Amino acid sequence: MSLALVHIAKGVVIWTLVPSNIAGRTKKSVTSTVLFVAYCAGNSIGAQVFRAQDAPLYIPAIVVCSTMYGLEIVIMICWRAYYMWENKRRDKAVEAMGLTKQEAEHQGRLNAEMDMTDYENIHFRYSM
């Protein structure tokens, strides 16, 4: 039961955070496609670790699944730390430009209309 809740919770986080933290139409489309293909491949491969000879406890499969969930948690923590660091770096850069928060947000919207990616747009902020 608890593994199912973890699986549902991480799915919601991944499927909502990725699109909201990517700018640029093409980059967002490509990233969403790659994410979907990787998700499908992972689910297909993951089912293969449940072998009949390991029944009824499936200890090797439980170890693999637990390890992957642990790795996913570490990656999510690192991802969040990177976004926090990048937002602070961008805040300092915009502050050095002498722009107010409202001017920076306005410029960010203008840059988004020019289809700038999140790397190109210094005014883009990652959500967490």
Automatic annotation (TrEMBL):
It is found in: Membrane. GO terms for molecular function: transmembrane transporter activity. GO terms for cellular component: membrane. Keywords: Membrane, Transmembrane, Transmembrane helix, Transport. It comes from the Eukaryota. It is a multi-pass membrane protein. The chain crosses the membrane at residues 30-51, 57-82. PANTHER family: PERMEASE-RELATED (PTHR43791), TRANSPORTER, PUTATIVE (AFU_ORTHOLOGUE AFUA_6G08340)-RELATED (PTHR43791:SF36). This is Uncharacterized protein.
